[in-house]
Amino acid sequence: MCYDLIAKTNRKEEIQMSLTNPILCLFEITDPNLIVTGISKERCSTNQRIHVVHATLSYQLLKCPHCGHKSLIKNGTHMSHLRLGTLSGGRYEMHLKRQRYQCKDCSKTCGAKTKLVNRNETFTHNIKHQVIVLARDMLTSKEIAKLCGISPSSVQRILNANIHLAYRVKHLPENLCFDEFRSCNHWMSFNCCDAVSHRRIVTLKDRLSKDIIDYFEARFSVQERAQVQSVTIDMNAEYGSFIHRLFPNAATIIDRFHIIQLAGRALDNERTQTIRTIQDKHSRIYHILKSQWRLFHLDEIVKGTRKM
């Protein structure tokens, strides 16, 4: 009878280990101390279905990490909820029971560690890798969050922690371009690039004059900034107030696109004012000014060609 009980126990362990290895291989987990005990499906507070992998983490710890004595005893387990990489677009979690240990000498406790996740984090390295791979395909944060089953703010935190931008370029180009763009959460960010090669010099999280001045003054010497010959900007008056301070020898150039855009808006305003003064709504002049507004934005060469 004892032999049958031992044989059944060994068969259960063999079945458990045979199921553990394929499941861990699916998530690219190579920790030999992890043992999968079961798989289930649950629902979270938002009624989203979660695929849960139940596992235990335990190994023999010889010395106390605090005092170094060999007087450790097992002291219960601690449940950790880890986020795994997605397999079919759903949400996968691992409920991991970590073995706790207590030292008889110093009475301090410690827990079993794994390389699956960093300390005090819930996102595994596998799901972080998936986020970075999807970000390289130029997907938005919302699309990545939907595919990986996490929030867009978590996607942004993962990208900010794993993508490190250069501290500064080696040499400032002679011709720079300043502009702003709408970034995350409708915030306006600052962008600086080379006017000739269009190579990015720096991207700041906001467009405040103080932050722009601090960046260039803290990273580039006066001699380096004095080599800049021109800075192309839009109609933003804030840029013109500190360009000479940062680049004493640079000429300020207004981008011709914004000048043409300003002239086009002034022409449209004059056209609409003229339309309002026409009493006959069925006249030829009214219809031309109303519907053929594109003709007033054409170049003189194009107009001359059409007349011919």
UniProtKB/TrEMBL annotation:
<feature type="domain" description="Transposase IS204/IS1001/IS1096/IS1165 helix-turn-helix">
    <location>
        <begin position="114"/>
        <end position="160"/>
    </location>
</feature>
<dbReference type="Pfam" id="PF01610">
    <property type="entry name" value="DDE_Tnp_ISL3"/>
</dbReference>
<feature type="domain" description="Transposase IS204/IS1001/IS1096/IS1165 DDE">
    <location>
        <begin position="176"/>
        <end position="295"/>
    </location>
</feature>
<dbReference type="Pfam" id="PF13542">
    <property type="entry name" value="HTH_Tnp_ISL3"/>
</dbReference>
<dbReference type="InterPro" id="IPR047951">
    <property type="entry name" value="Transpos_ISL3"/>
</dbReference>
<dbReference type="InterPro" id="IPR002560">
    <property type="entry name" value="Transposase_DDE"/>
</dbReference>
<protein>
    <submittedName>
        <fullName>Mobile element protein</fullName>
    </submittedName>
</protein>
<dbReference type="InterPro" id="IPR029261">
    <property type="entry name" value="Transposase_Znf"/>
</dbReference>
<feature type="domain" description="Transposase IS204/IS1001/IS1096/IS1165 zinc-finger">
    <location>
        <begin position="63"/>
        <end position="106"/>
    </location>
</feature>
<dbReference type="InterPro" id="IPR032877">
    <property type="entry name" value="Transposase_HTH"/>
</dbReference>
<dbReference type="Pfam" id="PF14690">
    <property type="entry name" value="Zn_ribbon_ISL3"/>
</dbReference>
